[in-house]
Automatic annotation (TrEMBL):
Source organism phylogeny: Eukaryota, Metazoa, Ecdysozoa, Arthropoda, Hexapoda
Transmembrane residue ranges: 154-177
InterPro entries assigned to the protein according to its UniProt record, in alphabetical order: DDR_Repair_Kinase, Kinase-like_dom_sf, PI3/4_kinase_cat_dom, PI3/4_kinase_CS
Assigned keywords, A-Z: Kinase, Membrane, Transferase, Transmembrane, Transmembrane helix
Limits of the PI3K/PI4K catalytic domain: 86-249
BP GO annotations: double-strand break repair; intrinsic apoptotic signaling pathway in response to DNA damage; telomere maintenance
Gene that specifies this protein: LOC115883818
Organism of origin: Sitophilus oryzae
Protein name: DNA-dependent protein kinase catalytic subunit-like
Length: 249
């Protein structure tokens, strides 16, 4: 399987160069299909030889780790962490657009993982994260105000945010967050007895069977959109939701 997929990437990357890197990476990411495998580790050079061969010392080139500009203060560029290189291996996620996890190696000897997403406009995600930052600042100000007034009300900063960096309208990178699980994983973990788990698996399988059988995820969604009405999808979704016990939250 790896050899088959790697050949597709290598063939597509024959003409890649520095000026074409973003465009080629976008096209390659959109072509990935791993026949249902949840995660496949590959070599970075199979996607982008330029990044795989990047060495700040050898090339005498400075690139910053993304996400160091907050927008709320004057940036101290001289203190920004630069990229020394990239880890040789990547991981491909199993979601519809097959985003890829890459790891940047900082000159401070730390690793900075990011998720590369193609085929989606993540500018709205960036705005939402900026809203979280604003809300945290409001909470922090409210805390200080109540402390000065000696009142009993206290707001807590509860919103954790991550860096979202759009590169184009259909390509961007997102800060990788460790030790989290998907909604599917959360539901499986919450259904902590065999009867509930078996029931959920049955419903999940019926959800998959609801879609048309096609060779790729994109074809599945397209065929379903042509044959199923909005009411069909809404009713099926509601039936699935009703099968999940309310007390798992």
């Amino acid at each position: 399987m790896y050899k088959k997929n790697a050949k597709v990437f290598i063939d597509a990357l024959q003409k890649i160069n520095e000026r074409q890197t973003l465009k080629q990476a976008k096209e390659i990411l959109q072509k990935i299909s791993f026949d249902g495998q949840e995660k496949v580790s590959l070599l970075l050079k199979d996607y982008c030889p330029w990044l795989a061969n990047f060495s700040a010392a050898r090339m005498n080139l400075e690139l910053e780790i993304p996400g160091q500009y907050t927008g709320d203060k004057m940036p101290l560029v001289q203190h920004h962490i630069k990229i020394a290189g990239f880890r040789e291996t990547v991981a491909v996620m199993s979601s519809k657009t097959k985003p890829i996890k890459i790891t940047m190696l900082g000159m401070n000897s730390k690793e900075y993982p990011f998720l590369v997403k193609a085929g989606e406009d993540i500018r709205q995600d960036q705005r939402i994260e900026q809203l979280f930052v604003l809300m945290n600042n409001i909470f922090a100000t409210a805390n200080k105000t109540h402390q000065l007034l000696h009142t009993k009300y206290l707001f807590v900063r509860i919103l954790w945010f991550l860096q979202v960096i759009p590169l184009t309208s259909s390509l961007g990178i997102i800060q990788w967050v460790e030790n989290i699980i998907s909604i599917e994983g959360f539901i499986k973990k919450s259904l902590n007895n065999k009867k509930r788990t078996d029931s959920w698996k049955t419903n999940a399988n019926s959800y998959v069977q609801f879609f048309e059988r096609k060779p790729s995820d994109i074809d599945v969604y397209g065929a379903t959109a042509l044959k199923r009405t909005k009411d069909d999808v809404v009713k099926f979704y509601q039936r699935m939701v009703n099968q999940i016990p309310l007390d798992i939250l």
